[in-house]
Amino acid sequence: METSLPVFLLALLVIRGLSLECEECIGIDDCSGDKLPCGLGKDKCSVTNMALPIGLSVTIKSCVSSDVCDKGVQVINLGQRKYVIAHLRCCEGDGCRDIPPSISELPKKAAENGKQCPACLAIQGTCDEKVIDCREDELYCAGGLIVTSTLEFSLKGCANKAFCDSLVAYEAMAPENNGHHAIQCTSNSSIHQEEFSNFTRIGKSSGVVNTNPRWFGLFITIFSGLIFFQV
Question: What transmembrane ranges does the database entry give (predicted)?
């Protein structure tokens, strides 16, 4: 029994020494940031490349859970040839610095697949949705709200399985009082604005409800620009 405390302290030091640290940042084209300890359940470092229809490429580096690694290219189709596409890849150590951008351009027009979804993007108000024809592997309707203390964004469109499977990658990384976002995927062809408001308030959805990441402010800037360039 006399050795139990020293052994416990030694084990604690070993565990802390082995705890994962990942670079965390978001930026236009590429980014660099400090290495920070990963939270509970986040056992991999990741690099996400994102392309927006306003001609911006965004890179995000963060800790994630290994079950969201390498799901493929994520696509959400907002209608009127406006896409947001992303590719999350997991990495280790210095290998994260060697991952090249994986998205060079927005997808070419693909064949319709017979599914239809409401699509729109709006700030501070209800989406003026239009039904669009989904294409290729866009087999889900997706939508949600991004809520901060001053702004609320509505988002709807056709999405592929990789997008829906990767929602959990955007986990809570900041206190809840900074706001939150909620994204939902469904195989149905109808998502209503009231459903978004409801699951955002009660914190339940078939997707994921999260608090804002540390770099959420830049996301707000990007989405503001995206909405501006729709006009």
Answer: none
